C-alpha cells in the first residue's frame, strides 16, 4: 500500500474506533436507564444521551469520513486492503450513505416525533384509545416514506426497510418463506387445537421464590458457556441484551413469582444473544463489524438456545432434577410431563406470550400489514380492522379491543418498520442451523442430555459468532447449510415436535 | 443587556451545559466500572473514558469558550449578569485558566504517568517495597511542581495545591487551625490511652447477615431523608458517592460479615455526601456550579451525618432497638454500652481505620509532609523516615513496615497532593456548623433522639446544600457561624465527647 493509502486507512480506522467508543458510552447510558437509574434523573439523562448521539452522528456523517471512504474505495487502494478492512469500508459506506442522505433537520424532527409518538403509544395502550395514537402513527409513516424516497426504493418500497434489519432480505424472498410457513403452520395449529392430548400445565402455576429462580438462571447461563468475566445478568421490566464489547455483554431478565419459566426462558433467550456478542473475534473490536450480522441471525441465536435447546426433551431430562432441587415439592412431575407442559400450544392474541409455533403467525400478520402500509399506501386509520381480520384468518380469534390488538407492540410507535420479520427469520435460521449441527456434531442431543453444551457453543462460534458482520446473513446460513434460507426446516422441526407432543 | 451580550451568554451557557453532559456520561462510566462492570471489558472501557475525557477537555479549553468568557467579563456585560451567571463566569474562568495553562502534551504525559504510578503503588503496597514506587513518586512530584510553576505559586507553592480542593485555603490558615488541633488533641489522646474506662467492643465482633445489614442501611438512609427517587445504594470495594445530577445521586457501601458497623457508617457517610448533592438548587443543573463548593465542605456533610449524628448517644437511644431487631440475640446491650463501643479510641497506624479523634492526627501528618515536599523540596526518598518520625510524635507508635506506613494511601500515587486536609477541614466545619444548628434548631438533640432527622436536613439544605458552588467555603461557614473556620469548635466537641466516655 502507498504511504497515502496507509495514512488514509489508519485515519479511517481511528474514526471508526472513535465512533464505536461513543456507541459503548451510549449503550452504557441506555443500559443504566433500563436497569435502575433513579427516575428523577431521567430528564437530564435524556439530554446527555441527546448530546452524545448528536456528536456521534456528526462523526458518522462528516465530510472527512466521506473523503476517507472515497479514497479507500479507489480500486488501487481497495485492492490492497485485507478482508476485514474491505468489509469495514463497505459496511461504513452503507451506514454513511444512509445517514448523510437524511437532512439533519428532517432527522431531528423525526427523533422528536418518535419520542412523542412512543409516549402517545404508551397512553393509548393503557387506555385502549387508538384514535389518540393514530395521528402520530400517520406521521411516522409519512416520515418513513420520506426516508425511503431519500434512500431509494428497492424492488418494492418496503424492501428498503427490510434491508435495515436484515441486509439483503426482500419481500420477494419473504413472501416465499412465509408462504411456505403459513401453508403448513395454520393447519398444524388447527390440528393441535382439536387434539385431545393437551399437556397439563397446572403445576407450573405456583409461587416460586425469586432468589431461587435467580440462582437457577445463573446456573443455566453458566452451563451455556456465558462468560461472567465478560458479562452480567441484571433485572429490568423488559428483558434485553446489550453488547458493549465482547468483553462486556449484559443481559437482563424479569422474575415473576407466579411463573417459574418466564425468567428462565428470558435468561436463556438473552443468553443466546450474549453468546453471539461474547464470541466475536477480538480483531473486530472497535470496528462497526463487531456486532451481529443481522437482526434475524441474532434472533436465531436467542431462539436456538431458548426453543431448540431450552424447550427440548433432552435438556429437561438433564436439568429438571436440578430445577426441582431449588423448589422442593413444587415441581413433582417427570421430565416428560414437564416437557409437554412447557411446550403447550395456545393460540392467543398477544405476540410476546405466544408459543413457539403460533408465534410465527403473529409475525406474518405484522409483515403483511407493513407491506400494505408501504407498498399499497394503507393508512393508520385502516389498521385496526385489517389487524382484526388477519387474526381471524391466521389464528381463528379476534381481539376484543385495540389494546390486545393493533396497539400491543411498541415497534411502530418508534418507527421500527421492517423489524418484525427478524423474529420469524430467527426461528427459520435456527431450525436450518440445527439440522446442520445434528449432522456435524455427532451425538448432539446426547450431549444436551448430559449437560455438555460447550460443543454446541463452540460449533456456533466457529460458524456464526466469530464473524460478527464479517459475513452477510446469506453467507452465514449458506456456509452452514449449503442452501439459502428455507422455511421447510422450521416446518419440519415444528411438525415433528408438536405431532409427537399432541399425538396427531 | 445588549443583543450581543445575551447571545454570548446563551452561547456560553450552552457550552457549559454541554460540558456538564459529558461529565454526567463520564460519571456513569466510572460508577459502572466500580459497581460491577465485567473485568474483561475494562480495556475497551478505559479507551471509551479516554475518548470522552479528551473531547470534554477540548470543549473546556476551546478558544471559543475563552472568547466568550472574555466578552462576558467586560465590565459592561458582567455588570448586567445575574448572581448565578456571574458566579458561573468566575468559576469557569478559574477552571479554564487552570486547564489552558497546562500544555496538552505535558498533561497527556502526566495522565499516563499517574496511571502507571497507581499500578506501581498497588504493587508496592502489596509487597511493601517502597523502593519500587519511589521513582514514580518523584516523577509525580516533579510534574506537580511544573503545574505549580505554570499556574503560579500562592503565598507558598503548596497553597496552589490546597486551592484545587479548598478554594481560598492557605498554609497560613491551616497552620493555625491544625496547630490548635494538635495542641489539644495530642494530650487528649494520651489521657484517653491512660484511662481505665475502656469501652467493651467485644460484642460487635460477631457474624452479621449481609441482607439484614443492607436492609438496615437502606432504612437509615431513608430516615436521613435520602431520596430514593433521585438516588440508589449499591456495593463496591471502596465506598463512594457520585452526584450525576441532583436527580441521580449514587452511593455505595461494602458489607463485612464480621463487622456490623462498617457498612452502616459507610452508608451514613456517603449518605451525607448524597444529601448535599440531591438538594442543590434545580436552577444550577447543567452548570459547573452544580456540585459541592469544596472538598472540605463536602466532607463536613459526610462527617456531620456519620460522626456528629451517627455516633451520638441520642441517635442510638432511638435506633439501637431497630438494629437489634434485625439481628436477634446478637446485640444484647443497652444504648449506653453500644454508644461507648462505637466510639472507642485506639491510636493506630492506618488512617481509614482511625476513630473520630485520632483521625485528625493522621491528616496533620500528611499535611506537614506535603508542605515539606512542595515548600522545602523534600524528596520521595526521605518520606518513609519522616513518616515514621511523625507517627511517633503524634500517635506514639511507629509503623513496622512501609505497607502500614507511607504506602498506605492511594492519593499521592494519583497526584492528589493537597487533598488530605479536606478530611480534617470537614471535621472542623461539621463541629462549627453543629454549634450553630444547636442554637437555631431548638431541641435538635431531642429531634435526633426521636428519629426526626428531617429538620436537620432542611436546616443544612437552607444553609449549605442548596447553594452548590454559588457560595465559597468561607461564605458558607461564615454565613452559618458568623465566624471564619476555627478549630476550637472541633476541639470542644471532641473534649466533651471523649472526656465523658473515658471519664477523664
TrEMBL record, chains A, B:
Annotated TM spans: none
Which InterPro entries does the annotation name?
A: Peptidase_M32_Taq
Q: Which reaction does it catalyse?
A: Release of a C-terminal amino acid with broad specificity, except for -Pro
Family the UniProt entry places it in: Belongs to the peptidase M32 family.
Needed co-factor(s): Zn(2+)
Active-site residues?
Answer: 270
Q: In its UniProt record, which GO terms are filed under biological process?
A: proteolysis
Q: Which superkingdom does the taxonomy of this entry point to?
A: Bacteria
Q: What detail does the entry give on cofactor binding?
A: Binds 1 zinc ion per subunit.
EC assignment: 3.4.17.19
The UniProt record gives the binding positions of Zn(2+) as 269, 273, 299
Q: What does this protein do?
A: Broad specificity carboxypetidase that releases amino acids sequentially from the C-terminus, including neutral, aromatic, polar and basic residues.
Q: Name one Pfam family in it.
A: Peptidase_M32
* Matching PANTHER family: CARBOXYPEPTIDASE 1, METAL-DEPENDENT CARBOXYPEPTIDASE
Protein's recorded name: Metal-dependent carboxypeptidase
Query: Do the record's keywords include Methyltransferase?
Result: no
Source organism: Paenibacillus beijingensis
Q: Which PROSITE patterns match?
A: PEPTIDASE_M32
Q: What keywords is this UniProt entry annotated with?
A: Carboxypeptidase, Hydrolase, Metal-binding, Metalloprotease, Protease, Zinc
Cite a single GO MF annotation: metallocarboxypeptidase activity
Amino acid at each position: 500500500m502507498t504511504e497515502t493509502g496507509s495514512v488514509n486507512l489508519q485515519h479511517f480506522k481511528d474514526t471508526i474506533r472513535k465512533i464505536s467508543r461513543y456507541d459503548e458510552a451510549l449503550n452504557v447510558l441506555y443500559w443504566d436507564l433500563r436497569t435502575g437509574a433513579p427516575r428523577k434523573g431521567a430528564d437530564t439523562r435524556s439530554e446527555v444521551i441527546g448530546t452524545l448521539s448528536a456528536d456521534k452522528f456528526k462523526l458518522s456523517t462528516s465530510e472527512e469520513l466521506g473523503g476517507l471512504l472515497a479514497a479507500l474505495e479507489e480500486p488501487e487502494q481497495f485492492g490492497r486492503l485485507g478482508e476485514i478492512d474491505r468489509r469495514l469500508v463497505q459496511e461504513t459506506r452503507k451506514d454513511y450513505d444512509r445517514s448523510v442522505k437524511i437532512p439533519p433537520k428532517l432527522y431531528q424532527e423525526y427523533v422528536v416525533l418518535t419520542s412523542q409518538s412512543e409516549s402517545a403509544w404508551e397512553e393509548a395502550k393503557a387506555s385502549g384509545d387508538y384514535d389518540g395514537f393514530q395521528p402520530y402513527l400517520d406521521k411516522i409513516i409519512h416520515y418513513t416514506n420520506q426516508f425511503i424516497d431519500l434512500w431509494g426504493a428497492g424492488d418494492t418500497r418496503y424492501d428498503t426497510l427490510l434491508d435495515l434489519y436484515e441486509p439483503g432480505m426482500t419481500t420477494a424472498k419473504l413472501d416465499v418463506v412465509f408462504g411456505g410457513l403459513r401453508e403448513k403452520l395454520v393447519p398444524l395449529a388447527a390440528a393441535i387445537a382439536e387434539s385431545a392430548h393437551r399437556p397439563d400445565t397446572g403445576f407450573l402455576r405456583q409461587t416460586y421464590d425469586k432468589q431461587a429462580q435467580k440462582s437457577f438462571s445463573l446456573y443455566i447461563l453458566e452451563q451455556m458457556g456465558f462468560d461472567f468475566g465478560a458479562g452480567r445478568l441484571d433485572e429490568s421490566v423488559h428483558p434485553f441484551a446489550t453488547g458493549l464489547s465482547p468483553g462486556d455483554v449484559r443481559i437482563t431478565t424479569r422474575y415473576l413469582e407466579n411463573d417459574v419459566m418466564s425468567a428462565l426462558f428470558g435468561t436463556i433467550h438473552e443468553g443466546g444473544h450474549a453468546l453471539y456478542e461474547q464470541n466475536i473475534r477480538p480483531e473486530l473490536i472497535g470496528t462497526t463489524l463487531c456486532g451481529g450480522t443481522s437482526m434475524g441471525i441474532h434472533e436465531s441465536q436467542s431462539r436456538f438456545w431458548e426453543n431448540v435447546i431450552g424447550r427440548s426433551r433432552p435438556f429437561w431430562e438433564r436439568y429438571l432434577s436440578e430445577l426441582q432441587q431449588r423448589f422442593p415439592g413444587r415441581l413433582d412431575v417427570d421430565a416428560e410431563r414437564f416437557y409437554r407442559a412447557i411446550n403447550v400450544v395456545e393460540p392467543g392474541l398477544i405476540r410476546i406470550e405466544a408459543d413457539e409455533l403460533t408465534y410465527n403467525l403473529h409475525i406474518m400478520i405484522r409483515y403483511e400489514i407493513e407491506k400494505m402500509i408501504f407498498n399499497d399506501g394503507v393508512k393508520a386509520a385502516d389498521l385496526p380492522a385489517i389487524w382484526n381480520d388477519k387474526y381471524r384468518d391466521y389464528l381463528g380469534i379476534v381481539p376484543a379491543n385495540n389494546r390486545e390488538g393493533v396497539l400491543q407492540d411498541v415497534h411502530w410507535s418508534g418507527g421500527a418498520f421492517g423489524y418484525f420479520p427478524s423474529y420469524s427469520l430467527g426461528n427459520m435460521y435456527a431450525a436450518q442451523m440445527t439440522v446442520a449441527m445434528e449432522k456435524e456434531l455427532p451425538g448432539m442431543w446426547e450431549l444436551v442430555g448430559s449437560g455438555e453444551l460447550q460443543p454446541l457453543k463452540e460449533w456456533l462460534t466457529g460458524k456464526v459468532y466469530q464473524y460478527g458482520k464479517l459475513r452477510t446473513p446469506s453467507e452465514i446460513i449458506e456456509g452452514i447449510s449449503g442452501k439459502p434460507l428455507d422455511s421447510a426446516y422450521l416446518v419440519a422441526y415444528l411438525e415433528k415436535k408438536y405431532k409427537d407432543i399432541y399425538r396427531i
